[in-house]
Structures are given as structure tokens and as C-alpha cells.
Amino acid sequence: MLDHVGFAVSDIKRARAFYEKALAPLGITLIMEVGPDLTEAGGTALGFGSEGKPFFWIGDNERVGEGTHVAFTAKTRAEVHAFYDAALAAGGADNGAPGLRPHYHPDYYGGFVKDPDGVNVEAVCHSPE
Fold first, then answer.
1. What is the CATH number of the domain that holds 46?
2. Gene3D superfamilies from the xrefs (predicted)?
């Protein structure tokens, strides 16, 4: 089971604005902010999550990595669309419109965007329609 995931961003303010808007339709909000005085590498770390638990972290204290991918669970296919639309409106780039991806499994319904740093971010619903 995945507890949390984190990756570096080049501009913490831009990334914060993007993820606050893009993740809102999934019920994921900013839960915690850790300032430079408390991080080992001296940057800011932001923890997004739900029900009081941050499980998705971004920070400006490390080098932005290539090939990073993160997928968030959506309860419904409508949530996948809402995430995709919100992410594009927040400055993300299309990386695969919402739809079935049967090469993963028959009910795999995902929508993909690139965040402002080019990270591949997805919302996926595994339930039948």
C-alpha cells in the first residue's frame, strides 16, 4: 500500500496554485506546509491529502526529476473528467484525455495531464461505468 509520494518542483508557488485547483475535484487539499527551517535540504515542502493525512508532497528543495508519474484514485469517471478539466484550467497540458485504457484492464478509465514542470499526473477510476 502506498503511504505517500513526493517529488521536486521548480517553482513552489506555481506548483501550489496548480495542484490546489487540479486536485480539488478529487477531494484532495493542501494539509501541511513545512518551511525551509524544518526541511533537511532547506526548501519548502507542501503536503496534499484528505481526511487530515498528507500523502502527496511537492517541494522546491531538490532537483526536478524526469519521468515522474503519479496517479490519483478517482471514485467515478466524472471525477476523472473534473480533475482533467481543472488541471487544464490551472495551466496543465493535455497528456491524454479522459477515457478507457483497456490495455491496462477493461475498466481502467484515466485522464492524464502534464503539470507546469512536465510531470505526468493522472486521475484514474477502476470501476465500471
1. 3.10.180.10
2. 2,3-Dihydroxybiphenyl 1,2-Dioxygenase, domain 1
